[in-house]
Amino acid sequence: MSWNLPNILTLLRIGMIPVMALMFLLPYPWSNVIAAAIFGLAAVTDWLDGYLARLWHQTSPFGAFLDPVADKLIVAVALIAVLTANPSAALAFPVAVIIGREIAVSALREWMAELGLRASVAVGWLGKLKTTAQMVAILLLLYAGPVWVVSAFTVGFWLLYVAAGLTIYSMVLYLLAAWRAVDSQGEST
Predict the structure, then answer these.
(1) 146 - beta bridge partners?
(2) What is the pLDDT of residues 7-61, one digit of tens each?
(3) For 93-131, how does the pLDDT look when each residue is reduced to its tens digit (9 = 90+)?
(4) Do 63 and 49 form a contact (C-beta atoms < 8 A)?
(5) Backbone angles phi, psi at 26, to 5 degrees
(6) Which one in 4, 48, 110, 129 has a CA-CA gap of 20 to 30 Å to 173?
(7) Domain 1-85, classified CATH 3.40.630.10, yes or no
(8) What are the phi and psi torsion angles at 5 (to 5°)?
């Protein structure tokens, strides 16, 4: 493993996960604010570690593996914590869609890598848009307080549905890209 700043930021992000969940689930009026701040900091380190790794030419196989794992872990734990605190079928649906998609696409990427076709399921602009909507939604759901005259939870709830829609659409695009890549590889052999 390469001990560089981008990898250290990724490891710190993983370390933030249980702290964020614990803060969110504590019964104090300030716990949501702390949990949202930790999640926001984690989201910034997600962007920063990738940026620095490319800028300083410190990309590594370990970082390429660990970064998406850290992202999926913090998203899943945050969504489960929010659902635990606010159990409802209306919230469970987008949570299940998002977590299910993350597992399915991770498995798809691993399978495509085994076939030597990982580039055919690379992250595109739609994936980045989905991630942005998802991260902002989760941040608002964790905070859950008022923002001006609206409830952050309500805005986060509807934005989570937008993220779930983008999640389904991007998963379909990944599956189609994988299908075409596997199909064209079968034709060339």
Answers:
(1) 151
(2) 999 999 999 999 999 999 999 999 999 999 999 999 999 889 989 999 999 988 8
(3) 999 999 999 999 888 888 888 888 776 666 678 888 999
(4) yes
(5) -70, 145
(6) 48
(7) no
(8) -60, -45
Report pTM: 0.90
Spatial distance between the Cα atoms of 105 and 110, rounded to a whole number of angstroms: 8
Angle, helices 31-55/61-85, rounded to nearest 10 degrees: 160
49, two tokens = 């570690």
Q: Locate 117 and state its tokens.
A: 């076709």
d(CA 12, CA 70): 9
CB 31 within 8 A of CB 25: yes
How many angstroms separate the CA atoms of 48 and 15, rounded? 16
Residue 63: both structure tokens together: 């970082």
CA pair distance 93, 79, nearest whole angstrom: 11
Domain chopping of the chain, boundaries: 1-85, 87-189
Q: What is the 3-state secondary structure (H, E, C) of the chain?
A: CCCCHHHHHHHHHHHHHHHHHHHHHCCCCCHHHHHHHHHHHHHHHHHHHHHHHHHCCCCCHHHHHHHHHHHHHHHHHHHHHHHHHCCCHHHHHHHHHHHHHHHHHHHHHHHHHHCCCHHHHCCCHHHHHHHHHHHHHHHHHHHCCEECCEEHHHHHHHHHHHHHHHHHHHHHHHHHHHHHHHHHHHHHC
